[in-house]
Amino acid sequence: MRLEVIFRCSKGTAIDFNYNHYLSNIITEATEKVAADYDQKKSQSLHTFSQLYLKDYSISNGKMISGSEQIQWYISSPDKIFLETIVKGLTISNYVYIGNSLLEFSQARLLEHPQFYDEMDFTCMSPITIAHAAGGGKEQYSSIDGDFFGENLRQDLVRKHYIIHERFPKNENLSFYFDTNYMKKKSRPSRLINYDGKKIMGYMVPFKVIGSKELIEVGYHAGFGNKNDHGFGMVKVWHKNRS
Question: For the segment 167-192, what is each residue's pLDDT rounded down to a tens digit?
């Protein structure tokens, strides 16, 4: 399921580019405000969220300066109750902070999910990252043009499918085809996000997936790749101009 959240702010509100950890905190605080009678542990680990969408903004001193009074944000999870809990929590608090900037919760609505096929095109609403342990307890981030980037995405989706459904998918095959023309046109298809002092590298590149509809649906709802609950791996369906 997917939730669209709308905040209101004053024109001229300044928002730091590295806001992911603030958004994570908003989700945590919203769910904690609601006395839910179900175990949220699995839902909280399987969700993702988008970057913020400002209708009009300028850039000054490393911050986005809002030129409008509305900001859109999207949260996705396979658990509808988890998303409804977030809405209840936002309704209770009414206001949230992103750094020192105050935003007013305006409204939220659950969006219909798309029809899933065994071949689909997506664009990124937040960067996709693949992380693995390196020496000294550090993490290393895989390159999108590496040999195992797509395979690691597939294996991660199989793992998530098992957590959600408590079974493996009937079809575990899935291939990723990232838009090489897009990457050639972009000087920096990668994004380096400072998550509360920790640098995380991901990619905002359109891609095609071919294979298991079950795994594609998991990726749409729970996110592709790692660190989804940090605001990575959210996508939307890309309807190419096929004329």
Answer: 999 999 999 999 999 998 887 789 99
User: Closest Cα partner for 242 from 118, 124, 116, 121?
Assistant: 121
Structure tokens at 164: 């959600």
Helix (H) or strand (E) holding 139: strand 139-141
Query: Quick one: 46 and 140 in the same domain?
Result: no
Does 6 score more than 50 pLDDT? yes
- Same domain for 219 and 132: yes
**Does any domain span residue 242?**
no
Domain that holds residue 82: 2-111
Q: Residue 46 sits in a domain of what CATH number? A: 3.30.70.1890
User: Are 91 and 46 within one domain?
Assistant: yes
What is the pTM (predicted TM-score) of this model?
Answer: 0.93
Q: Are the C-beta atoms of residues 37 and 85 closer than 8 Å to each other?
A: no
Write down the residue that tokens 């298991």 correspond to. 212
Q: Can you spell out the DSSP letters for 1-34?
A: -EEEEEEE--TT-EEES--HHHHHHHHHHHHHTS
pLDDT digits (tens, 9 = 90+) for 98-150: 999 999 999 999 999 899 999 999 999 999 999 987 766 678 899 998 889 99
